[in-house]
Write a structure and sequence with these properties.
This protein has about 425 residues and is α/β, with parallel strands linked by helices. The chain has 3 domains: about 160 residues, no CATH class; about 230 residues, Alpha-Beta Barrel (TIM Barrel), CATH 3.20.20.370; about 30 residues, no CATH class. Helix content is about 35%, strand content about 15%. α1 crosses α2 and α2 runs antiparallel to α4. About 45% of the residues are buried.
Length: about 425
């Protein structure tokens, strides 16, 4: 067995070593605080302390971050003189940097606890992140570090055993508007067609009237097609439903008691998992969030354990504290709106580590690496360019046998109005997974 020696106990070291060694690399290991617990006849020693031992070992001198209990600013120098970019370098170690401290800094989202300029929705801006500024946002760097470290471990300990892990796909769909026209109240329908008239958009006006008269399908009703795509690749989807108690500027789904809305949610729940998409108005109001979750669970007659924040309006660590308070077990908000890539520098789910309490929580974070509106609204990519970039991210995940988690909307599948030309991007991406 691999023994990790450190003369100081650390919940931070426990968290990140479990993620790197067990979750990613599949190594059985044990932390020890005394070298008397190490048996050189049957154990392998990873020494994470300030001093080398007399045993055959892999020695890594600690940076110090994992033995802190507070939060402080660091001057970080990202170097590019090795196969992969890195920081917290060490000339005294058998490895060129403190992998554990660097991975912890990225995975815990340490930088998001520090003062920074938020965007218009109060979110941590992608452009302020170390990954964006140092040019590695487009790669699951922690997973890549782990795979490189695996080579080093094997060179030191040829008999060390690793369990293989398998590439997976997480198809997640946000339902901000279950339908574009269908199911709207008379007042909202009149307001909607008035908008089309004011814009002199006669094609849109005709579409809305035809949908209202049940002559054609609502353009946002893409659910049968989505289910067909997911069946083809043999992965079950998760739909995050916006179930706001009242209509606002940012929460524009249908009335939660509307029959078409309810029927569609029930149908989706038969073939897919359902999560709550906590409304914009519920942010920082866990009681409202809990009410939305409870009401949605009543519709599908199933407990709801997964969430993704509407508008990705997530602030570290407050949003996660709220989710833990109401009993959410899985959150899928870890990604950026304005950029694609790996916000936590990983494509592997991980438990939320609360830096304020210095403890591991039961909330599992599922990071996504791309979103349709990031490509379309923020980056201004063409559909072809978006597909090409998404395939590059897919390959980066495949290289480390991680989880390819995507965020898409039923709206973009419609190819309607601003989404013209985007109707096949998601299907083409899913088809490319097993090419």
């Amino acid at each position: 067995m691999l023994k990790i020696y450190s003369n100081t106990a650390s919940s931070r070291l426990e968290f990140i070593s479990k993620f790197l060694l067990e979750t990613i690399l599949g190594i059985d290991f044990k932390h020890i605080s005394h070298l008397t617990e190490f048996d050189p006849s049957q154990d392998f020693l990873l020494n994470y302390s300030d001093q080398r031992s007399e045993f055959h070992e892999l020695f890594i001198a600690p940076h110090g971050l994992l033995f802190d209990t507070g939060i402080r600013s660091f001057s970080i120098d990202v170097k590019n003189d090795q196969v992969l970019p890195y920081f917290f370098s060490s000339s005294e170690s058998d490895w060129h940097f403190d992998l554990f401290a660097a991975a912890f800094y990225l995975l815990s989202r340490y930088e998001e606890y520090l003062p920074s300029q938020a965007d218009d929705h109060g979110r941590f801006a992608a452009e302020n992140s170390l990954a964006f500024q140092a040019g590695f946002l487009d790669r699951p760097l922690i997973d890549e570090w782990a795979f490189e470290f695996r080579k080093k471990l094997l060179s030191h300990f040829p008999n060390l055993k690793f369990r293989e892990r398998n590439f997976q796909v997480a198809c997640t769909i946000d339902i901000d508007q279950v339908f574009r026209t269908k199911g709207k109240s008379n007042w909202r329908f009149i307001k909607s067609i008035s908008g089309s008239i004011l814009k002199a958009d006669w094609k849109d006006l005709k579409n809305k009237i035809a949908v209202r008269k049940n002559k054609i399908d609502d353009p946002y009703d893409q659910y049968d097609r989505l289910e067909k795509i997911h069946r083809k690749i043999n992965w079950k989807a998760i739909y995050f439903i916006l179930f706001a108690e009242k209509n606002t500027k940012h929460d524009i789904n249908l009335n939660t008691k509307q029959p078409d809305f309810i029927q569609r949610i029930k149908r989706l729940s038969h073939t897919a998992d359902i999560g709550i998409h906590p409304s914009y108005q519920s942010n920082s109001q866990p009681t409202v969030m809990q009410s939305e979750r409870f009401n949605l669970s009543q519709i599908i007659q199933r407990n709801i354990n997964s969430s993704r924040q509407h508008f990705l309006k997530m602030q570290m660590p407050n949003t996660y504290h709220d989710l833990i308070q109401i009993g959410i077990l899985h959150d899928y908000s870890m990604g950026y709106a304005s950029q694609v890539g790996f916000r936590a520098s990983t494509c592997t789910p991980f438990p939320f580590f609360d830096l304020h309490q210095n403890e591991i929580t039961f909330l599992t974070i599922h990071p996504f690496c791309l979103m349709d509106t990031s490509y379309h609204a923020y980056l201004k990519y063409t559909p072809a360019a978006a597909l090409q970039n998404a395939k590059q991210l897919l390959q980066a995940v495949k290289n480390v046998e991680g989880v390819f988690c995507t965020l898409w909307h039923n709206e973009s599948m419609s190819g309607y109005q601003e989404w013209k030309g985007w109707e096949n991007v998601y299907e083409d991406l899913m088809n490319s997974i097993y090419e």
